[in-house]
Amino acid sequence: MTETATLKIWRGLDIGAGRWETYAVPFESGQTILDGLRWIRINCDPTLAIRFSCINANACKECMIELDGKTVYACTARLQPREMTLAPLSNKKLVRDLVTEIAPPAERFAGS
Amino acid sequence: MILESMRAETDVLVIGSGAAGMYAAIEAAKAGCRVLLVDRSLIGRGGATVMAQMTVAVALGAETPDHWSYHYRDTLVAGRGLCNEPLSQLLCEDGPDCIRSMDDWGVGWARKNGRITQAMAPGHDRPRCVYVDFLNTGPAVSKTLRTVVNKTDGIRKAGDLCIIDLLRSNDGVAGAVALHLSSGAPVIVSAKATIVATGGLTRLYRRNSASTNMGGDGYALALRAGASLVDMEFVQFFPIGHLAPRLVGMDPIMWDPFRYKLGGRLLNNRMEEFTQNYGVAEDGKYVITRDTGSYAIMKEVEAGRGSPHGGVYLSFQHCSEAALREAFGPVIDRLAANNIDLTKTPIEVAPIAHYQMGGIAAGVEMQTALPGLFAAGEAVGGANGANRLSGNAVTEALVFGRRAGRSAALFAKRARHQPDDGGSARRAVELISSSAPQPDLNSAEAIQLLQSTMQDNVGPLRSRAGLSSALRTIERLSGALGDRPPGDGRRFDMQRLDWFDLRNMLLVARVVTEAALVRTETRGAHRREDYPNAADEWENNQYVRIEDGRIVPSKLSAPLAAVP
B105, B259, B323, B326: which has the highest count of C-beta atoms within 10 A? Predict the structure, then answer.
């Protein structure tokens, strides 16, 4: 029997009006949380928002989220065959789902 | 719905904030221009530069006497007759100066006894590659340039701005229209000069070595604006990309620096070396060039001599723990955390999409045929011909970025803001504002399908049948994509972003595939199983442009305007 990782993910556009959605992801030893999130986007729901760029190298530092209440990089935190709770960073402004505003203010678009 | 557009105005717009874009922004600002540096991700974090682990080729002569003309000669040989020689010369001749500037800015090139260390790399006639330990070249280059960008007056930065289309003026380019990801709104950027520094197209492939934002955006933008692309069939596969066991927190091209420093042996599943059967006996050294290496590995796998995950083995079992530690320090601990002990077991490697030799047709001032449009870095086609030499990519990013910044500044100082051609801004804003009903197509799955067909059919080994099959898949996906993006259009709508990405990726995939189909020969990174030899009549560059909505290839060199 194949094992599964159960990802309970916070979703929404407004921190006061979000919802939790749960996805069963096939578990394979060595895979990362980001692998699981990408699997969900391809196989279940492409509207799930997650910010990442380098995928696997831990070079871009964009994929920071909270896993069971602790800040992690989704690209290096390992998937486990249990329920794992994923939420946006609580100390940053929410953009959508797991995406938060992590750019320094001087690197955000401000119009002319 | 037409969303209210935001607006920005600048002298020089730089699209993309890898090494090329950041260097361009610095030079244009130093020349006195107002610069807007935009990136679809964070500034100076995504793209390819940050992923580079080692090897910046440059004729510094720090290790052994060297001269740019020797580097140039090696670059032309690797390019198999197709290099745009003035561009190759620029890369090699200006390389040392850019590398010294980076050194002055504190990048920290590895040194021994005060002298910058230069490593030997395949295809070079002498040790020529500078680097930052350990496996830190790309992050150090990015960080150094970010620091200089931050210190330079006149540069505004804007991340989360994904350029959807360039703005056409009556005879050239007048800026761009962007989707502001963190609000969902369109942004019209009016610019006197625009530099495309968006990198390559590795995201078109299932196995790739760069960031997810390298989906060929710049090529699609330039094509739709009316510029020409050149050499698009030449996609470099890096032969020894990591395959197994699962390795996280590391770039899959990390075995390259390991081979530079420690040699290593490529083995098939009989644990026998095999590259000598493809004309290159390695004898524990790293000498095989990227095109031949990829070919040899694919052929071993095809013959049933591959490793369990479909690649070959790379062994460093000849190295002691002490030797590994001396060469790579803390990286050895990161490998241990992934349960990899190189003294005990070999790892599995296989070709991985790495770099696009082709790109936007540009002259030595980085100018395109469209006034006001410049290109820089990997986005430029031609300097590396049919196969890029190891170490030329970061050099190219720095040299071409610097040159593009200077040229665009010169142009911008003499130019005025041009009105758009009366339609391009409106069309782009309408597209960003439009919304299609929820599609049957899962956008993320469609990207994966495209990547699979490109990997299997437009990868290191090609044939008419495979290329035709890829074109059919591209056609089908293009039909399913429709002409408007789905989604709610609010902030960070990934499904919508996927749609805009697919719009670019499908166009660029079609160009690569069609160009590969037309080139009925084997040369450099382009290998046709049905045409296994190089053909003299194909010692020629292939240009592509869009005319009346059709992709038009031509073998003739499109003469480019001189200095703008």
Answer: B259
**pLDDT number for residue B556:** 55
Tell me the DSSP string of B49-86: GGG--S-EE----SSS---HHHHHHHHHHHTTT---HH
DSSP per-residue codes, B353-421: EEEES-EE---TT-B-SSTTEEE-GGGB-STTTTSPPTTHHHHHHHHHHHHHHHHHHHHHHH--PPPP-
**Which residue out of A53, A78, A95 would a mutagenesis test of the B interface target, given it has the greatest number of B Cβ atoms within 10 Å?**
A53
Which H or E run includes B108? Answer: none
Cβ–Cβ under 8 Å, residues A34 and A75: yes
pLDDT class of B3 with cuts at 50, 70, 90: low
Catalytic pick among B290, B406, B510, B545: B290
Contact B211 A110 (CB under 8 A): no
Q: State how far the Cα of B40 lies from the Cα of B465, in Å rounded to an integer.
A: 36
Residues 6+ apart with CB under 8 A from A21: A8, A9, A11
Nearest to B458 by CA among B218, B232, B142: B232
Backbone φ, ψ for residue B365 (5° rounding)? -90, 10
**ipTM surpassing 0.95:** yes
Q: Does B290 participate in catalysis according to the annotation?
A: yes
DSSP A2-39: --EEEEEEEE-SSTTS-EEEEEEEE--TT-BHHHHHHH
CA nearest A88: which of A61, A54, A63? A63
Whether residues A53 and B8 touch (CB distance < 8 A) is answered with no
d(CA B129, CA B122): 10
CB contact under 8 A, A58 and B492: no
Residues of A with CB under 8 A from a CB of B: 13, 29-32, 38, 41-43, 46-62, 75-76, 78, 95-97, 99, 101-103, 106-112
Write out chain A residues lying below 8 Å of B47, CB-based: 53
CB B187 within 8 A of CB B7: yes
Which DSSP state fits B265?
E
Written as one string, the DSSP assignment of B154-199 is TEEEE-SEEEEEEEE-SSSEEEEEEEETTT--EEEEEEEEEEE---
| Side chain identity at residue B104, one-letter code | D
B170-214: pLDDT as tens digits? 999 999 999 999 999 999 999 999 999 999 999 999 988 777 889
The answer, yes or no, to whether residue A1 has pLDDT greater than 90, is no
Residue B227: both structure tokens together: 């510029």
Give the one of A13, A30, A102 whose C-beta lies nearest to B246's C-beta.
Answer: A30
The neighbour count for residue B209, using CB atoms within 10 Å, is: 29
Tokens 């021994």 correspond to: B112
Considering only CB atoms, which chain B residues are within 8 Å of A106?
150, 157
Residue among B501, B564, B185, B242 nearest A41 (CA): B501
Tokens coding A61: 């530092």
